[in-house]
Design goal:
Blueprint lengths: L1 E3 L5 H9 L8 E3 L6 H7 L6 E3 L5 E3 L3 H11 L3 E10 L4 E2 L2 H6 L22 E4 H6 L13 H10 L3 E12 L7 H19 L2 H14 L4 H12 L1 H7 L5 H16 L8
Parallel strand pairs: 1-2, 5-8
Antiparallel strand pairs: 3-7, 4-8, 5-6, 5-7
Length: about 260
C-alpha cells in the first residue's frame, strides 16, 4: 500500500490495524505523487502481475483470479482492463460499451477486445511490461496518464485487452477538484499527442480535443500548461511505429464522439 501524501492519519491507522500482518508493505510518501505512486509500489512488488486499486475502487471477488489466468495463458498480453460498475447502484460505466466494441485490431489469440489504451484503476498488468516502459510519466502526474504508457507498451510489443467478466467497482471521490483534473487531463492529452503522434495526426487530434473542450479558464490554463512543456515534449518526442499508430487512428472517431471522454467539469 502506498499512502500518497495523505494528511488524515491514514498511514497511522494502517500501521495500528495491520502493522503485524506480514502480507502488508506500507510505503508512506510525504507528497502526493499522482500516478507515480503506482510506480513506487511496482518497484517493490515481488509478483508476476500487479492489480491497481485506487482509493475509490475495489475488485469484485474472483476478478483478479480471472485476470491472472488470462495473463498467464498469453505471455505477450501486458494489460487486462476490467468492466467498471459505478457505485452506488452497480451501474454500467459508459466506457464499458466502448471497451467492449473497441475498433482496435489485435492478434487473433487475444482473449478479449484489443485496446489502444487502458484505465489504470481498472486494470491488472504484467509487472515486467510495466517496468520495461518505465511506469507512468512523472511529468504527466495524473489525468489521462495511461495513454502514453499504453503507446509505449504497444511499441514494446505488449498487447492490451478488455475482459468484461473481470469486474471492478468505482465510487468516485467527492473531495477531488474536478476542474484541476480536467486541466491536467487536457494538458496530458495534448502532451501525449505531440510526444508520440505523427505531425498530421497531432494537428488533427489537437484540434478535435480543443474544439470540443469548454471555452473557459480551465481550458485556457490547460493549453498554457501544455505550451510551457513544449521544450520537454520536443526533446522527448518519439513518433509511434506505423503498427501502433494504426491503433490510435482507429480510436479517433470513438474519442471524438465519446460520451465517456468529454473534457467537462
Amino acid at each position: 500500500m502506498v499512502d500518497n501524501g495523505s494528511s488524515d492519519g491514514t498511514a497511522e491507522a494502517i500501521r495500528e490495524r495491520f502493522g503485524a500482518d506480514p502480507r502488508l508493505t506500507l510505503i508512506v510518501s510525504r507528497q502526493n505523487l499522482g500516478a507515480v505512486g503506482r510506480n513506487v509500489a511496482v518497484d517493490v512488488v515481488p509478483t508476476e502481475f500487479v492489480a491497481f486499486c485506487d482509493d475509490d475502487t475495489w475488485w469484485e471477488p474472483g476478478a483478479l483470479q480471472a485476470a491472472v489466468e488470462a495473463l498467464a495463458a498469453h505471455p505477450r498480453l501486458g494489460v487486462v482492463t476490467a468492466r467498471i460498475l459505478v457505485e452506488p447502484g452497480a451501474r454500467e460505466d459508459p466506457i464499458n460499451a466502448e471497451l467492449l466494441h473497441s475498433p482496435v485490431r489485435g492478434p487473433d489469440w487475444l482473449p478479449g477486445p484489443a485496446l489502444g489504451s487502458f484505465l489504470a484503476g481498472a486494470s491488472v498488468m504484467r509487472t515486467q511490461a510495466f517496468r520495461q516502459v518505465g511506469g507512468f510519466s512523472r511529468r504527466l502526474w495524473l489525468g489521462g496518464e495511461e495513454e502514453l504508457m499504453a503507446a509505449d507498451l504497444a511499441t514494446a510489443g505488449w498487447e492490451l485487452c478488455h475482459l468484461p467478466h473481470v469486474v471492478v467497482h468505482h465510487q468516485a471521490s467527492k473531495v477531488r477538484d474536478p476542474h484541476l483534473r480536467r486541466r491536467h487531463g487536457l494538458r496530458n492529452t495534448l502532451w501525449f499527442t505531440w510526444l508520440r503522434r505523427p505531425l498530421p495526426a497531432a494537428v488533427r487530434r489537437s484540434w478535435q480535443v480543443l474544439s470540443t473542450a469548454p471555452r473557459d479558464r480551465v481550458t485556457l490554463d490547460a493549453v498554457a500548461d501544455a505550451l510551457r512543456g513544449a521544450g520537454w515534449v520536443l526533446r522527448e518526442r518519439r513518433v509511434l511505429p506505423d503498427r501502433v499508430e494504426e491503433r490510435f487512428l482507429a480510436l479517433e472517431e470513438s474519442q471524438r464522439t465519446s460520451a465517456a471522454r468529454q473534457y467537462v467539469s
